[in-house]
Structure formats: C-alpha cells, structure tokens
TrEMBL record, chains A, B:
<feature type="domain" description="FAD-binding PCMH-type">
    <location>
        <begin position="53"/>
        <end position="230"/>
    </location>
</feature>
<dbReference type="Pfam" id="PF02913">
    <property type="entry name" value="FAD-oxidase_C"/>
</dbReference>
<keyword id="KW-0274">FAD</keyword>
<dbReference type="InterPro" id="IPR016166">
    <property type="entry name" value="FAD-bd_PCMH"/>
</dbReference>
<dbReference type="InterPro" id="IPR036318">
    <property type="entry name" value="FAD-bd_PCMH-like_sf"/>
</dbReference>
<dbReference type="GO" id="GO:0008720">
    <property type="term" value="F:D-lactate dehydrogenase (NAD+) activity"/>
</dbReference>
<keyword id="KW-0560">Oxidoreductase</keyword>
<keyword id="KW-0809">Transit peptide</keyword>
<comment type="similarity">
    <text>Belongs to the FAD-binding oxidoreductase/transferase type 4 family.</text>
</comment>
<dbReference type="InterPro" id="IPR016169">
    <property type="entry name" value="FAD-bd_PCMH_sub2"/>
</dbReference>
<protein>
    <recommendedName>
        <fullName>D-lactate dehydrogenase (cytochrome)</fullName>
        <ecNumber>1.1.2.4</ecNumber>
    </recommendedName>
</protein>
<dbReference type="InterPro" id="IPR006094">
    <property type="entry name" value="Oxid_FAD_bind_N"/>
</dbReference>
<dbReference type="InterPro" id="IPR016171">
    <property type="entry name" value="Vanillyl_alc_oxidase_C-sub2"/>
</dbReference>
<dbReference type="GO" id="GO:0004458">
    <property type="term" value="F:D-lactate dehydrogenase (cytochrome) activity"/>
</dbReference>
<dbReference type="GO" id="GO:1903457">
    <property type="term" value="P:lactate catabolic process"/>
</dbReference>
<dbReference type="Pfam" id="PF01565">
    <property type="entry name" value="FAD_binding_4"/>
</dbReference>
<dbReference type="GO" id="GO:0071949">
    <property type="term" value="F:FAD binding"/>
</dbReference>
Amino acid sequence: MPELAGAAQTLENSTGSAGVEGLVSTLKDSFGERCGTSAALREQHGHTTTWIETQPPDAVVFAQTTQEVSDIVKLCAAAKVPVIPFGTGTSLEGHVNAPHGGISIDVSQMNRILDVHPEDLDCVVEAGVTRKQLNSYLRDTGLFFPIDPGADASIGGMVATRASGTNAVRYGTMKDAVVALTIVMPDGSIVHTGGRAKKSSAGYDLTRLMVGSEGTLGIITEITLRLHGQPEAISGGVCPFPDVQTACNAVISTIQMGLPVARIELLDSLQVRACNNYSKLDLAETPTLFLEFHGSEAGVKEQSEMFSAIAEELGGGPFKWATAAEERTRLWTARHDAYWAGKSLKPDADIMVTDVCVPISRLADCVQATADDIQAEGLLAPIVGHVGDGNFHVQVLVDMDDADAVRRGKDFVERLSLRAIDMGGTCSGEHGVGQGKRKYMEREHGNALGLMKAIKLALDPDNIMNPGKILP
Amino acid sequence: MPELAGAAQTLENSTGSAGVEGLVSTLKDSFGERCGTSAALREQHGHTTTWIETQPPDAVVFAQTTQEVSDIVKLCAAAKVPVIPFGTGTSLEGHVNAPHGGISIDVSQMNRILDVHPEDLDCVVEAGVTRKQLNSYLRDTGLFFPIDPGADASIGGMVATRASGTNAVRYGTMKDAVVALTIVMPDGSIVHTGGRAKKSSAGYDLTRLMVGSEGTLGIITEITLRLHGQPEAISGGVCPFPDVQTACNAVISTIQMGLPVARIELLDSLQVRACNNYSKLDLAETPTLFLEFHGSEAGVKEQSEMFSAIAEELGGGPFKWATAAEERTRLWTARHDAYWAGKSLKPDADIMVTDVCVPISRLADCVQATADDIQAEGLLAPIVGHVGDGNFHVQVLVDMDDADAVRRGKDFVERLSLRAIDMGGTCSGEHGVGQGKRKYMEREHGNALGLMKAIKLALDPDNIMNPGKILP
C-alpha cells in the first residue's frame, strides 16, 4: 500500500501552531469574552481525569451554534492550526489535550434539546447536552436514553469516544444509539450523515465512521439519538461467587440463554471491600455480580428466577434480588461510586484508570491473569467490569509523585492492554484511544491501521483535527 | 471542499477494461477451468433479479481462498481492470453488473464455516456461505443467525449490501450482526477489521464502513458474525386492520411499549389477496399485520396478549395467534412467498421490486401516498413491509417489452424514492444502491456524498472496485 505509507508520513508533518497568535486575535475580535486565553481556562481544557499530563490549548472558544463551530474551524484551517473539541472533559485517555497547541472548541453552551419524536423513539440534541440533562428532560415522556458511561458526559463526547457503560449489554453502545449526525468537517463545511429512518442501505455508513473518531475527522455538533421506552418494571440484586471463573461462567450462561439482562457487573473482592467501606454495604468480600433486569412485572420476576437458578447450579449465590426502587438505588449508587470507593482505599493516591475488552470466553482468564499480575507487582488495583460485554476496568492507585510507582503502573497498563489484544480483544472497550492507547494501535489493528490513516489523510489532509490522538 | 470535487472528477475517469485480454489469459493460466469466459457464464454473473439490464463481465473467476482473491485483485489492479464481487447474484439493484467490463470474482466456492464459538455467540465464515447453510449447520448448537433477507443470499453479499429483513426489528441488520471482517483491498492487500470483543472504542470503525459498501471499497472474504440463542418459545399470528393508518399505529404502540416483537410485517389488501390465492390462505382482504414473538413460554404469551390488546384498542383485530409450529410455518411461508404470490397476480409480467424506509411516524403517510400513486397510475403493485423498521417494498408488475409500461414503472419508483427521502427517510432500506438508486444519492446525502467520494478515492484511487455502483 504505497499510498498509505505516504499518508502515514504526512501525518507526522503536523503543521502545529504556526500563525496561532493572529488567529487568536481574530477569534477574540469575533467572540469577545467567549474566547479565553487565561492559564486557568487553558489548563482546565487540557485537563483529563486520568494520569496523562496536561497539554493546554492556545485558546478556548465557547461556540453556541454549528455555524459558529464552522466559522472557527474555517479560520483554523486557513491558519493550519489544530482544533480540539471539548465537551465536559470527562474523557480518560488525554483526548482533550493539545500536544501541538491550537484552539479548544468548547461546545458546553450548545446544550439545547432540539426535538423529541416519541413515535420514532428518537431525539435531536446539540453536542453539549449531557446524558443526565437529556434523561431529566425525557422523564415525563416515558422514554429514556440508556447509555451510561458513569460520568455525566456530553452526548457529543460520548459519540466521539464510542462510549458505553453498564447498560450496554442490553441497549448497545453509542455505535448503536446514534442515528444521524451533524458534523463540521476539517475545512469548516457542515455535513449531515444518516437520516431519521431506522435503517438504510443507501451508501457508506459515515455516521458509524464518525462515532469513535475522537474529533480527529470532524467536530460533532448535533446528534440524532435512538431512545427506548422506560421499562414497566425493574428488578435487581447482587450475587456472590466463590471465584472470578464461576462468576464469568454465570455471565456466559445468562447471555447464552438469551436472558435480556440490562446490567451485569463484576466487582472483584477488593472492589467489594472498597464499596462496603465507602457505601456502607455489608456484602461478602468475594467476587460479586450486580444485576438489573428490565421488562414487564412478570418478565423481570422470570428473569430473576432464571438467573438465580443459573448461579446456584454453578455454585454461586444466593442471588438476592428486589424490585423496590430504594434498595436498587442504594446498590447501583454503590456501583457508580466504585471509582471513589476504590480511591478511598488509599485516599492520598491518584488513580490510573484503564479498560480492556475481550471475547467473553476469555474473560475469566483475562481477569484472573490481571489479578495475578496485580498481586505479583504488589499493586493496589480493584477490578470492576461490564462483564456481559467482556469489558472490565482496573483502577491502579498510584502516588503520581513517585516515579517508580508511576512506571510500574504504566507497565501494568501496557501488559494488560497487550494481554487483551492477544486474547482476540481490544486495548479499549469504551474509554477510547486518545493519547494513552495510541501505542497499541498497530498491535491491535495491523495493516488496517493503514486504512485508518488513509481515511484521516483524505478527510483532514493538513491534520488539524485533534492531532496526536488515535493514530500513532 | 476542493479535494472532494477532485475526487468526484477522478471517479468519472474510470479506466475501464484496458488490458483485459492479457489479464484474462493470465487468469486462465493460473485458474484453469475456474476462470470462465463463456457467454452463458458471463451473462449469469451480470444478471440481477430485477429489471436492470444485464452487463456481463469479461470473465468469471471462482476463487477458493482469501489469498486467491488477493492474487486476482493484484492482477486486476496492475492492469487497472474492474473487479466485481459475486456471491449468489440475488441482489436487486444491479450490484453485480459490469458496466465497464472486468473480472467477476465468484466466492460461492468459499463456503466453509471456519469456527463457531458458542460461549461468545459468534462464528467465522467464508463469504460464500449462505444464510440457510449457516443455520442448518448451527441447528444443534442452540444458536441461530437471525438476519433473513428472503433470498438464500451469501453472507458476504449480505454484508456488502447491509441486508436485513423480517427479523431486523428485533435482531438488527447486518450493521449489527458483523463483528469483524477480512477484506481484500483494491491493491490486493489483505486487511482484518474489528476483533472478537463484543465492543471496542479503539479506532475508526472500519467494519461498519465496509458493511454496505457493495464491493466498492474491497472484497469481503471472511466474516465474524454475531449469533443469538434459539428462543425457548415462539408465537405468531395475523391481525387484520381496517386501514393502513390503523395498522401503522398499532406498530408504533407496540414498539413504544417496548414489546420485543421479533417480526412485524404489513401486507396491503392486494398483497393479502395475492397470498390468499398463491398460498391457499383465507385471510380477510384488508391491511394485515403478520407477527412473531420470541422468548420464554410465559414471555411470548404475555407479548401476544399485549399486542392483542393494542390492536383491539385501536380498532383492529382480532389477533389470532398460535404457538404451534406448523401453523406458524404456513403463515411465514406465505409471507416469504409474497414475491411469487405478487407475480401470480399477472403471471406473464416481470417484477420491478423496490424498497424505501422512513421514520415510523411517517410510515402510514408514505404507504398511503404510495397506494394512492399506484391507483392513480393504474399500476398493479402489491405492498409488503418490515413495518417495525419503517421499511416497505413495492413490487410493480410490468411487461418489460412494453416500453411505456417500463417508463411508468420507473417513474413510479422515482416518485417513491423521492417521497421517502423527503419524509426524512432513505431511498433504500435494505436492497442497497447498486446502479438502480445512484441517482438519488445526492438528494439523500447532500454534501455528505463528497465525503463518500473522498473515502472511495483514498482507498481505491483507480476506481477498479465495482465501478459504477453507489456513487453517482
């Protein structure tokens, strides 16, 4: 593929921040106070919630419309200055950093819910709308937006990183949730991908190409999302297991039997201990599944009973389940606070968060090998996972001032990423590549990486869109 | 977008079949009897099951491995001769025609099922495996592959056209069914996209870009498919409605309530009459829904009762449902024979088949406007649709020797396509673009078409991969 080698070479020649000063001056003239250059603002916009060092942009512009985003990108394109999209800054792999400087386009003020179509189970939102904002808005419609990555992320950011979370086992990921997009391309042109039909076989799936492209192919400004009816009934509960293998076997059986489980989450013993401490639970400190079922009253009862039988047959259980909302809320609040519970194990430590995803048949092997690795290295690192998808997270508690500890943490993340890839999985199930996982892309994708580079070069020949992310 | 205008221009300059004679001679030397040039073989490989005129390739090569496909494509690339992938030839929009000549690569001998992973609910197949072959193979595993486009298409062809069918309302389309692909690119290189993890956020979604690309970006040779557990119980039945609007309202309510209906198909009065005649049914000749529910014994009973109540409340029904396999089989055989039933209305006629898809809220409007159009034009054209997705088909019965009738049929298809697009839908829900729907691509996609052309140009700069399809 000679043309792909050429593409790779061109990507290296990022034009960086030439001409950025004049550009910032023009942006200030146009946007007034909505264009900021204070150190605090810039630092905040390069900040990521994980361990990757902050690289602030040259300026931050708060856009309010797709047309404004287009205007800004056109100026950046003319000056060949990088553009970094910013939603809520809750991404985990350095996605919002500006390694070559440039303009951070903050879409948080683009937070209008433009349309809800209950008959079509879809809605149209601006990129800065957050998932909690959307679900509050939808509450009285009988509909909800299921994708839940934990953080109250912007929908635009969730599209960009192909987010998923606890409900993905039933409702899919952002790949499945996005129906159509409005995107500002690297030349500033405004493009609409997809339509409102539930399916189409008319042409290349540009929508899916943009989902997960992390701002490297364009800036997502409006999203048409698929919604779901709020379930009539919900039940949920916790189920202890003697070991990780048995818990994973229960997950496999559950999915093979076609139980439409809405959430099925694994916490390892250490994570259970952390949650007991932090959220005042009294769970047995053993590998534990948190489950939730959605359906009719009879349906959730049937599902709960079937899961109970599966767990018991495999030597797990008892499965304690409840349909009472307050009890479920208490449990799932604990699950959602797993990050803070983990941190409470060593309050003065920082956290390196990472995630991988493997075929579910390899999940127990991968979790066990990872737990062994954690023990051998003497790390403090609870494991929690969306195991119905074969996806799990490790939080490595690290003192970021201790260079040796940081190195050991990074080495652990590298071993974990390669272990997942070697098992036929991926170095990131839902956090994205950003800066943190770029170095694994070749191992994971082989020469398909050349195709990604060719597409990047075709759509963004000057490499101004979020340079230094995804592609090595 | 100056670079996109350039892309469009280059696509016009297809290099056609220069050098094809020497190439065919080389292929005959290498492949012996597996490279054929007889008129009958070539005609059959340009043949489409619809009204578009046959344009045969210069030669047909039966490939048996990915490496052979790669070898053939490398030769074609060197000679700048078009490559047209061929599975079973059941596509409907001229996908396998060779308007610029070239080599048809027939993958029907690549029909091995390479792997089934019951724990991961996936399998790996070669492109020439057909869906019925796969399901026969899977029968004893408790798993099945749900996507059902009617014809016993090859899996490779189903990926290429982003096929779906009656089960898509519950199980999704090929977009959702494909986990990973092996593809021979336009330069002959072999690329693997995706992995076996159920989800990933590591890089551009090349898999989804290839699904629906109709052989214009590469030839799909191996596919990893998501499978599903065979449902414990199935129930199904038919429900008459006084008019199309009421039937569509019942569909909308069913989906809004989250009933996980597995199939929900609309037949208009004429189609019901045709099925009564052809399949010896005695249904009332009024708009009718055919339904199927999958789940536990209790679940399908509950779903059937809930649908019954919905239909009754809206003025439809009675919904007659049964769990007995023979009764269901009789009904669904009739549904699957709808094409032949339609043809039986005028046995000496040919059929122009077309499909569109609209947001479900516009479905009744679109079906009604189309029925009015059929009546005003005096066409004989039954309607049948996967209405849970907003997708429907029209079979226009036409005497292809009557130029005026053909023109009126084509004009009708054009009005239908534009009507669907103008309602926020698409000119093809599941048949693809091929040659037949190229002219609607600009209307449907606007300047997003420029992105498609840029991607095509980046990956296939000499435009050798199935030229003259999708992109106008």
